[in-house]
Structure formats: structure tokens, C-alpha cells
């Protein structure tokens, strides 16, 4: 077995394999090598007695402080040889967290619920980070060993079984990865070499453009392509890329896009890169030929904020600017497009070129892990908005030209919150997380007793989906409508058409009318009302309530939607 590690500033490196120490030989570029037989291993730097896990570990059976274990990727028996992947245009994404998706909190437990996602009609499953972090329970964004699947979830074999099971059901898998910082416990990278440079709000950041940064960048690229190649993952969601500090001529994200495109040609299936960014800058998803970075899509929090304000009426925090902004934001993708942001106290963003960029490059959603979990009590939209009103928001998202994303449990208006939780074994770190969380929300008017204890295992239990409620009244109805909306989006190409220059939104008081080819999507967020269309209604395709139709007039009850076909337009394949 050949062991290698990058430690450019060290004068001596040993590898401890199955309890015995072996000297390593210095090679080119700061790499050290040794050929030793064994299974469990770790590295000792200079004359230190600390045994550190491999920064490129694929398996951490005893946690992030324990030894790494040799893992043979070729030993797993895949059954997805016929899988050719799924492209992003036309996709419907479902975001889930392995630890709270089912009571088991494991990859195998999640497999048991995949048929629900197939029945719902989603095409892509976006899995929150599964990299190794300290403790058993957590969101995954405090990972420190990026290539090792979290052992309590089922380790590397468990994740491969999950991906294989998804592919068997026609579901693509997107994996959330975090390259903008490392967690507070088990981040030993800086002992090996100059991995770190500065810090951000979440922890130490990476050295992406300083001395010896080539190997640090390689560390990120190899990790990303490893998930795509060795675990058969179909794409990556890149967390908070605005926090990646890189002044290189070729930004890390562009380098990543180039190498992922090359890998896609090799594995002969589409590979997708989706960014989370606070910049409101479409250059991220503009092709490299057009001067962009070449990523495939990005989240649009502005779409979320405008939807949230319109549905809930909440106008605190970063929401005040979005009051009355839904129609404009739906048309333009970003509300802040070179405009004043009161939350930031400055101008923010730049306009999207709607003639050149397709809508599928932007994700739209009513909820996601951040917008639920980073609320003080982790309350979902359904905790404050009736399910009928939430479903109107779902109709807007699922009938828009954007790539829709659903947060786990949203489709049945789940009663469970999704709260912030961690499980750091170090009592001092655990207390720091606990008090820090309460102080943060205390500044916004919450009492300490109102903020859930993130270290209490009960917080994880409360945040775990209750699958027994899916068929109950008040949950069954929204699930049926979500399913019907997705099916209609698939059967009527107009609803998934990503061309933004053909997308029109008309506002009549509390009613939005989305123009989608020959279809009109009428969304009423106010009281009972009537809407006059430009043509007579030929057919009501789907509605969430009893609607009345009289020629060009549609009577909509409060908090309802209706999707109608214009009588004067002949659609191919229809009379």
C-alpha cells in the first residue's frame, strides 16, 4: 500500500499503520511517500507524537480525530451501469438532510423513502453535506475531512448504496460541498501545510491565491471530482462561493468548471455545478465563452425573499426591501440588481441579461435549509401560513421558468420544524455554540428560553420528519397538489420553458398572472376575486379550489391558483 501526504514545510514525516510507525521519504513538491502494508493509518509531523488523520481520507470509522482507514473504491459493486444522468434543464430538485430525513438518520434509511420522491415527480435529490464532522449529529457544514462520508450516516459504502438506489429509480444526486471554511473541531490541515489564509464568519478560509496555493486548489478540485467520479454523484452544490477569496487570473470556480466539464466527457453523463452566492451576479453562470465562470446554475435568494414576504407578510431582517417585489423579481431574477439594499446599506447586484441567460440557471424555492433552519425556532412556512396559501406559492415556483427546488417535507406542509443542531463532544465548544446561538437571536428580540438548545438531542428529534402524517388531512391535500403541479410541468412544455424573454408576469392587485405560452397561471394571494384574461378560457387544467369560469373571466377564491388554457390558441397535439 502506498501512502502519500503533502507537508511542504516539515522536516520529518512518519506514517503510523496499524500501530507501527514508518519513516516517509520526501519527494518533489513537498510530498512525502511510504510503501507499507496495513489498514488504519495516520501521520506524525516532525517530532510530534500527535497522530493526525489523512487530509485526503476516504474513510473515518472512528470520527474526525481518529485514524484514517484505507478504502478501495473499486471494491463496491455498482448496479447503475445503464445510468446516463439527468441534465439540469427541466429538473425539479428536492433538498434533504440525511440525519433528519428519516428516524433512522442513515443513508439506508433514506433509501426506504426514495419511492416517495419518485411518486412526487422530482428528478434530482440534493443531499446536504455528508463529509465527516465532529460528533454524530449536525448540518454537515462544519466538516473537516471533506472526502470521507460521515460514519454515523453509513460511511462511504452507505453513501454509494444511496446513490446507486437513486439511480435505479431515475433520480440524479447532487451533493452539497463546503469549500469556503472548515469546522471548529478536527481541522488539522494547517499542521500539514499552508492550507489556510484568513477567516470568514464561519471559520478558517483556504489559501487559494498565495504562496503554495497550487496544491491547496488541487486539494479542492480533487475532492470535487472524487465525489463525481468515485461516488457516481451527478453534481455539486457549492456552498457560499462568495466567501472564496481568490484573486487569481483564473478563479477557482472557473478552474473547477473546466475540470468538471472534462470529467463529464470521460464518464459520459452530465455533471452539474450549482453555486450558492450572495453576490447577485450572473457571471457565475455565464458560459466561459461569454466571459463568465461557467457554472451551470445558482440559487436565487431574492426569489425566495420576494415569495416569502408575499406569502407571510413578514418584513423584518432582510425582508423589508421585498415588500411588493414579487412580480418584478419573478421577471428579473434578482430584485437587487445594482439597486439599494437597506439590509446591506449599499447598492447590490447587477441585472440579469434575460435575452441571453435561460431561467433554468437560477433555482427558485419557497424554503431551503438556510431559510428554515436559520430562523430562531426553525419554523417552516407552514407554521405561519395555511397550506392553501403555501400551495399558491408552490404553483408560482413550479410554473416559473426557473429550476424549482423543494425542501424536504415542504410538499406535505410538514408539522416538524427544522432547527439548528450540533453534537460537538468537547463540552467547551458545545457551550460556545449554545451560548453563541442564543446571543445571536437575543439581539433580535428573542428570549434565551425561546431558542432551542442546538446541543440537546431532542432538537434533532424535533427536526426529524414525521412520515406518518403524510396521509393525514391538512398534509395529504398539499402533497397531492405538489404532485399534480410537477406532473403538469412535465406534461406541458410551456411550464418548464426556461426562456426568460418569453416569460411575462401581470399583476392585478393580489393576483399574479404568469404567461406560459398558451397557458395562464392565476395565483390569488388575496380575497375572493375575479380576473379578466385576454382570451376566453378553453380548459381549466389544474386548480387548488373551486373556480368559476365565464368566457374570459375567472372567479378565484382566496388563496387559490388555477392553470388555464386559452381557447383561441391551438396547441400541437390538442384540438
Brief overview, please?
This protein has 575 residues and is an alpha/beta fold.
Kindly describe this structure.
Belongs to the glycosyl hydrolase 13 family. It catalyses: hydrolysis of (1->4)-alpha-D-glucosidic linkage in 4-alpha-D-[(1->4)-alpha-D-glucanosyl]n trehalose to yield trehalose and (1->4)-alpha-D-glucan. The record marks 370 as: Transition state stabilizer. The chain has 575 residues and is α/β, with parallel strands linked by helices. 26% of the residues lie in helices and 22% in strands. It is built from 15 helices and 29 strands. The strands form eight sheets. An eight-stranded parallel beta barrel has the order 8-9-12-15-16-17-20-21, surrounded by four helices. It has a five-stranded antiparallel beta sheet with strand order 22-23-24-29-26. A four-stranded antiparallel beta sheet has the order 3-2-6-7, with no helix packed on it. Helix 7 (252-267) links the parallel strand 15 (235-238) and strand 16 (272-275). Mean pLDDT is 96; it is low at 571-575.
Identify the strand order in the major beta sheet. Answer: 8-9-12-15-16-17-20-21
| Major pleated sheet | 8 strands, parallel, barrel
CATH topology descriptor of the largest domain: TIM Barrel
Tell me the number of helical segments per DSSP (H or I, 4 or more residues long): 15
Class by alpha and beta content = alpha/beta
pLDDT < 50 stretches: 571-575
Count of domains = 3
User: What's the architecture of the largest domain in CATH terms?
Assistant: Alpha-Beta Barrel
